[in-house]
Amino acid sequence: MKKLLITIDGPAGSGKTTVSRNLAEKLGYIYVDTGALYRGVAHEARQNGISPDDDAGLERLCAHIRLRVIKTDAGTRLYSGDTDISDRIRTPEISMMASAVSARPVVRQALLDIQRQLGAGKNAVFEGRDMGTVVFPDADIKFFLTANLNTRAMRRYKEFSEETNQAFEEVAADMKKRDENDASRDVAPLKPADDAVFIDSTNLSVEAVVAEMMGKVAEKTQS
Ligand code: DC
Fold this sequence. Notes:
The protein has helices at residues 16-27, 34-47, 55-64, 92-101, 105-119, 131-135, 149-164, 168-184, 206-222, and strands spanning 5-9, 30-33, 67-72, 75-80, 83-84, 124-128, 141-146, 197-200. The chain is of the alpha/beta class and 223 residues long. The strands form two sheets. The chain has a five-stranded parallel β-sheet. It has a three-stranded antiparallel β-sheet with strand order 3-4-5. Strand 4 (75-80) and strand 5 (83-84) form a beta hairpin. The radius of gyration is 17 Å and the shape is globular. 2'-deoxycytidine-5'-monophosphate (DC) binds at residues 12, 34-35, 38-39, 98-99, 102, 128-130, 178, 182.
């Protein structure tokens, strides 16, 4: 059977990660959260005292860091070298720093090859901001998943507030700022690909979104 590459782009809190994981599981495909790679670069930059606007520093960093996506019994984990950094990259500081480093062309270029290699010849679901527009413009099925800001912020708040101690208003303000950064940057801004299927998940359950996506996959595999 033909190998299918499915992309899911959208803003923070749109449900991309949960939906991508469920869809990949249902289909028996691999799943790649590309935001985790940007978070990994942000984490390492922070560890090494490199500021997000230091292009030379970021370029050197990207040339030597070794980010690895590893499937374990505890789920998919992100390693930098031999250190599991999966939990450390989920803080509000790293979210904001990831958004800042992801606007730098040196970082995007470095991650482009890694992402394409991860997807080459595989049945895969890739989620991010520019999967359907830049990284995999020839993907077999492209989705753009969104929801209104209030709903997305509430999802993030419920998921992480215990660990981060952030008030809802702070979560919403951070998310709005990150949306603006990610959508207004010059390189690979967040936007739907021309041929993407647009899904607004504001009033949809995860199951309903996945069902809609499965419908598109069925159409594609039967055509
Ligand atoms: O999906 P996420 O919230 O984990 O992503 C963190 C940041 O990384 C996000 O603010 C923008 C950036 N990112 C990107 O620019 N391109 C991608 N393909 C994925 C994430």
